[in-house]
TrEMBL record:
<dbReference type="InterPro" id="IPR029510">
    <property type="entry name" value="Ald_DH_CS_GLU"/>
</dbReference>
<keyword id="KW-0560">Oxidoreductase</keyword>
<protein>
    <submittedName>
        <fullName>Putative aldehyde dehydrogenase</fullName>
        <ecNumber>1.2.1.3</ecNumber>
    </submittedName>
</protein>
<dbReference type="InterPro" id="IPR015590">
    <property type="entry name" value="Aldehyde_DH_dom"/>
</dbReference>
<dbReference type="InterPro" id="IPR016160">
    <property type="entry name" value="Ald_DH_CS_CYS"/>
</dbReference>
<dbReference type="GO" id="GO:0004029">
    <property type="term" value="F:aldehyde dehydrogenase (NAD+) activity"/>
</dbReference>
<dbReference type="InterPro" id="IPR016161">
    <property type="entry name" value="Ald_DH/histidinol_DH"/>
</dbReference>
<dbReference type="InterPro" id="IPR016162">
    <property type="entry name" value="Ald_DH_N"/>
</dbReference>
<comment type="similarity">
    <text>Belongs to the aldehyde dehydrogenase family.</text>
</comment>
<feature type="domain" description="Aldehyde dehydrogenase">
    <location>
        <begin position="17"/>
        <end position="474"/>
    </location>
</feature>
<dbReference type="Pfam" id="PF00171">
    <property type="entry name" value="Aldedh"/>
</dbReference>
<dbReference type="InterPro" id="IPR016163">
    <property type="entry name" value="Ald_DH_C"/>
</dbReference>
<feature type="active site">
    <location>
        <position position="249"/>
    </location>
</feature>
Amino acid sequence: MLKSFQHYIDGEFSDAATTFESVDPATGVAWATMPAASADDVDRAVKAADRALFAPEWAGLTASQRGKLLYRLADLVAANAQELAQLETTDTGKIIRETRSQIGYVAEYYRYYAGVADKIQGACLPVDKPDMDVFLRREPVGVVAGIVPWNSQLFLSAVKVGPALAAGCTIVLKASEEGPAPLLAFARLVHEAGFPAGVVNILTGFGADCGRALTSHPLVSKIAFTGGPETARQIVRNSAGNLAATSLELGGKSPVLVFDDANVDSVSNAVIAGIFAASGQSCVAGSRLLVQRGIRDRLLARLVEKAQAIRIGDPQEVDTEMGPLATRKQRDHIEAVLAASLQAGATLLTGGGRPAGRGEGFFFEPTIVDCPTSTVPSVAQELFGPVLSVMTFDTEAQAIALANDTKYGLASGVFTRDLTLAHRLTRRLRAGIVWVNTYRAVSPIVPFGGYGLSGLGREGGLDAVLEYTRTKSVWIRTSDEPIADPFVMR
Ligand code: NAD
């Protein structure tokens, strides 16, 4: 008997006309049925969000009252983190020790935006006309369409739902068709927190119908998307009719630069964290290791040793360090790109296959390949898996050229004890994040987003909330005198 999940539309839980099965990636066996939202379901959800936007139950709340609802939601997320983590682990294969800690931290994102709600301020302008007062109001941008990919759905939706609600918007959130269970379960917490009907709607379905219907809906004013660049292009095309504002958090091929003076112990753990945590299924994965010649052999020997010692296994076990990939398709893709890379001249240093004894689960070994050029497929393409591509440099200039030789620009890591070198690199690397002597650190207080094909706009931090507002300029004339010349612009 499979577990079944429902949509949350207009404050009610409902079934969809069609369903699909969700597979546990650790076993390859279906464990739940999910509702597949149709274009009609999407239309119902967007219309509910549009009604809620202007209804007194939501529009009539003060900013502080919106903040209180968000605080309540944060508390509920924290209280239910264990259950949500288990669902995410079952539905995506992400290991339980990461889902537990990440979802505990998701509560902090809601707390952060709860606190921001009553700090979104307008302005009074010193306008250059003596008989005018001008002020600016920050108003909610409207109905938001939030779309997330399968990795870290609760986390990636918190950076959309939090600022959207703080700003007074309403939202229709589309969970990925892969691993939607935790987000559909989160809907119960939204309901319990007491948000008025229609303010938050959560559904799932496939990109071609549900995703397309949502991003081309005429009542949607803003699209907050996280996913791959090709989908982003389709979404921009879908939104053209309505000219909806878009923020796009896309893929990456992030470089980790290691200089000769770095500490091998500390760097090796950070490199492992960057590429093998979440089995490499992380947008900020440090998938290109650029290493200076003098430290190369020592660092690679340590990395190979550590990669071979990683405990691969049941993602629900707290000792497991690497679980399966989320989908069979994902593993097939990684295998194909790796084979092409070896053909193109890359050398396998460790891994490269499916670990023994894992049955039908979608497991793949932690893999390191030494690559002669940037044209090797594993260097050029995002794999979204546990494959580290290594390249060697001699000079700082070569390191920068290799690091920036990518169409992406999400994150980067620099490992050196030379402060002046580190500062120079923070200026020269074309990426939205530079981590120095650390990797994969995030916080609700810090903006997150990419350059180039890694995206448009920033999530996290104070400014992100402004992307969910628009400015209204209010002009008030303080004089009763007739306007001097009605035919000339003042
Ligand atoms: P994807 O682009 O295939 O799908 C993402 C979402 O878009 C899913 O919900 C999907 O149903 C939906 N979608 C697909 N086609 C659509 C369409 N035509 N219209 C509207 N919606 C549509 O991505 P994925 O394979 O699920 O996720 C992996 C990608 O996400 C990687 O590239 C990864 O780097 C990226 N990612 C980026 C970040 C970030 O913050 N920068 C974070 C996590 C993942």
